[in-house]
Design brief:
The chain is an all-alpha fold. Helices cover 80% and strands 0% of the residues. The longest helix is centred in the middle third of the chain and has 34 residues.
């Protein structure tokens, strides 16, 4: 299975390269069933082999994820919850998933945008809910784009570090998803505190 997946990913990256990464992540965040983590980890492995360049890979991944989450936000803002419930099943977004994510969003809101990328199923809904809730776009962008950057960089670095063992990341995510979430939350909180600290220094 691993060999077959690697073969298909190799063909994909050879044919579409950075543009393919951009569109794959944009569609993946919108809800199209694309194995985002697998693609990003393998892209990191491709970076370690010199097939891709890290700056361009990170940029295409970040822009793709940001584009997808921005479109989701705009759809939620314009058409609201009824449309999400109607088209959700076509995007593998069940009403139960929508309801559970709504409860999380009501409690944690912005921070869920930051760490939601690390939760398959949740990251496909949070931007829609932010639009439905009419969240201020600047606040939405600040948290969601930071999350896109952290998520993209995390999996690219994992793939580049593990090299031939890149596929183990998929197994680890399935078994230790909570650990990945806690790490992501810690990174997100550290980023937020650093930004606030710098803002306070400038203000002072």
């Amino acid at each position: 299975m691993e060999v077959a997946v690697e073969h298909h990913l190799d063909l994909f990256l050879m044919k579409y390269g950075y543009v393919g990464i951009f569109f794959a992540l944009a569609l993946g965040v919108l809800g199209v069933p694309i194995p985002d983590e697998v693609l990003m980890t393998y892209a990191g492995y491709a970076v370690s082999r010199g097939v891709l360049q890290m700056p361009y890979t990170l940029l295409s991944a970040f822009l793709g994820a940001s584009a997808g989450i921005s479109i989701s936000y705009a759809i939620g803002l314009k058409w609201g919850l009824p449309l999400l419930i109607k088209v959700g099943p076509y995007l593998h977004i069940s009403p139960k998933r929508i309801e559970s994510t709504q409860k999380l969003f009501a409690r944690y809101g912005s921070y869920l945008l930051l760490i939601g990328y690390f939760l398959p199923g949740v990251r496909h809904i949070t931007a829609y809910l932010a639009g439905i809730a009419s969240m201020d776009f600047r606040r939405f962008a600040g948290f969601s784009y930071a999350g896109a950057l952290i998520w993209s960089l995390t999996f690219l670095l994992l793939g580049r570090t593990l090299e031939r063992e890149w596929f183990k990341v998929v197994v680890y995510i399935r078994h230790y998803g909570l650990t990945f979430l806690l790490i992501a939350a810690a990174l997100g909180l550290a980023t937020y505190l650093i930004v606030k600290w710098r803002q306070n220094i400038k203000a002072g």
